Records
---
Amino acid sequence: MAIFKEMRRVRPSSSKAFDRTFGPHMDAAYSGIYRCTGCEREIAVEGGRRFPNHPHPPACPAILWQLIVSVSHNVAECVPAKFRRQA
Ligand SMILES: [Zn+2]
């Protein structure tokens, strides 16, 4: 299970993106942390990248990757104030 320390760094979502599953040779539609629904292994994948192989126990149900934590690429808050555009 994915864990985190600071609650203010994550927020809940009802996006359907979390309902989709992806086969092992598909490309990830979103950047984030995925879990294998068959064996519960978790991995981080960048959107557009193919899901990697992993040591999936043969007795477990088939590999399907499900997004459990989506990442934000909004870095506007990380830009030092002196470099920010004025609106
Ligand atoms: Zn697995």
---
Amino acid sequence: MYNKYDLRTITIKQLIVMRPVKELCDMLRERGMKITPQRRLIFEVLQDGAEHPTAEDIYHSVRDAMPDISPATVYHALNDLVAMGEVTELDLREGKRRYDPCTDGHYHLVCLNCRGVVDIMRASENPKLLPEEASGYQIVRCDVVFYGYCSGCQG
Ligand SMILES: [Zn+2]
Ligand SMILES: [Zn+2]
């Protein structure tokens, strides 16, 4: 009975990580963007920081090292990374966005109580629309999020 719901998943912390910070900085420079010490630090925090952090989380981590940094600087840097496809923006219905350095298509499992987020990598293909179902749309993204209560939050 349980097998019916067994997704045969493997959960990996970050299967596809962001590009190394140096490479990322080179890419930004090629596109005429400025690399400031603040931006470099934001990239570093994103790379090895908490999973699926919010912009606020990132801001607080960066501020520990650079007390003068402004939230706007953090938002701009994040927007650039999203525009470049290096980071995925996640909306988990919390009223705030999270940032995921793992850009490989994966599912998310969210605890409605503690807001824990788990990455789920499926060996099989992600859901796809048949061409006749897509109504001529060019599909660029598909989000699959399961909501529930983690084992620590049940009962
Ligand atoms: Zn929980
Ligand atoms: Zn994720």
